[in-house]
Every structure is written in structure tokens, then in C-alpha cells.
Amino acid sequence: MAAFxxxxxxxxxxxxxxxxxxxxxxxxxxxxxxGMLPFALILGVQGGQKGMSPLEMSMMAGxxxxxxxxxxxxxxxGSPLPALLIITVTLMINSRHILMGAAxxxxxxxxxxxKALPALFFMADESWAMSLADIHRxxxxxxxxxxxxxxxxxxxxxxxxxxxxxxxxxxxxxGPGLGNVEAWGFGMAFPAVFLVLLRGLWKGFAxxxxxLVSLVAAAAVYLAADGAWYVPAGAAAGLLAAYFGxxxx
Length: 249
Description:
- The protein folds into two domains: 2-202, no CATH class; 203-249, no CATH class.
- The chain contains twelve helices and no strands.
- The protein has helices at 2-10, 16-49, 54-63, 68-76, 83-93, 96-104, 113-121, 125-141, 150-174, 189-199, 205-224, 230-244.
- Helix 11 (205-224) runs antiparallel to helix 12.
- The longest helix is centred in the N-terminal third of the chain and has 34 residues, at 16-49.
- It is globular.
């Protein structure tokens, strides 16, 4: 319901530009769905093979719309259910949203809290990357303020959200009879799409320094320690590199 509240206040029949922005977001995210579909199906299949019903899988995907942490939760799913461990790992992996939210924060200053909070609920890696790329595009075109287009963002976010929830549930429905779908190699589609999205954010090596520091820190911790500690380590290293390196991009 929160999503509909955002759209009701941001999109009316008397505002064609707003409606066209929403449609532009839907259209732009269609290629991303090509990479998202197999990932959603793989997650659903894994959940189904762990005994989760399609409804349970879709509910988890809808309440924790965060990709990586959902795979971790499904991987830990068992009987008895290690609830505390799943919650802890989920928080660790989702800590990347702190860095993502910090990057968007300067462009959300004029947005009322009743719109900002629901919008942030739907923030995923893809919608975040596409929104920042759109902000940079608007800067280059000199379109003026606001640089952040809420209707465009919601067009992207709601489309990706609906696809993710529906296809994880579908994967759970057919999963028990499919065997090991990871062996099919579909999982590579998702990182490949995200790398293409990051290309739209490229502004040179100096601006990318925090990303490189984050990558190196995450890789080092991944090799040195068990668990998902590499996620907050990478996020913290990137934030510190951006702060002390004077990068304001």
C-alpha cells in the first residue's frame, strides 16, 4: 500500500510528464529483467527444494527485497530453523544499503519523508544504479532540479519488485523437480547486467577509487574469514576511502 501512496501523490492524470517518467522507468528496466529472471527462479527453486511453499518464498522475497541476503537465508534454511543466525547474516549482507542510501541521500533532500521511506523500501542494487545513472544523465543534459526523478525511480523499482516476487514464487512451485539449477550457469546473468549498469556511473578512475578500495577489502576479508563479514568490511572501506579521499561524487 505504501507504494500506491507514493504513486498517488507523485502521479496524476493531469500530469502527463510524471506519467511518462514512470513509463520511461518501466521501459528502461526491461533489459535488466533478462538478468533478474533466472536469478529469481534459481532463488525460488532453492527455496522450494528446502521445503518452502511458493507463498512463503514470495513473502520472503517481498519483505526482504535484497537479493544476496535472500540467497544466504535460503542456504541456511533448515530444521530447526536457525532464526538468529539468518537475521544476523541478513543484516550483515544488507549493510551495503547504508552505502547505497548515502549515495542517494543528497538527491532526496527535498523529498517528503512519507515519500522517501516507501521509495527506499523498494531500493535494490539495480534500481539504485539506474537511478544514479539517470541523475548523471540529467546533469549532462542540464535539465535542472530536481535531479532525482521519483516517478522514474518508482517505475523501475515497482517493475523489478513485481517480477522478483512473482518469479521466486514460481521457482518454488517448480523447484523440487528440477534438480541443481545452479549448474545451468544462469547465475552469471545477474552480475553481468549489474556490471553494465555500473558502466553508466563511470566518471573516471579518481571517482572510482572508493569502489576499488571496497572491492579489495571485501576480497581480502572473504579469503581470510568465514561468513558474510566481507560485505560490511567492503562497505566500510569504501565509505572511509570516499571520506578521507575527498571524493564527493
